[in-house]
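Give me structure tokens for this 110-residue protein.
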Amino acid sequence: MRLLLDQNLSHRLVPSLSDVFPGSVHVRDVGLAQADDEAVWAYAAAHDLAIVSKDSDFRQRSFLHGAPPKVVWIRRGNCSTTDIGTMLRAHRDDLHAFADDNAAAFLALS
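Here you go.
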């Protein structure tokens, strides 16, 4: 599973998660740092990436449009980049099962 980390998550997660989610990128690394949700959505769909975000707008878009792309919604308030990385690692198997489920479009993690 390759992830597209939204602007509200640190770009430092990409290298720290490269061993479990190789090929993942951050929006700023692909020229989408200032892009609107529609552009991020289109990029993720075109490049087979799952959007990971704390933004509920992607949750709503997922309910309206379905996949692709798949959306992972981080349901945590203020927390550190380390906490987010630890959570994504802890849910690695869930994330890979989600990626393999053709009917699934949305996954909430907390």
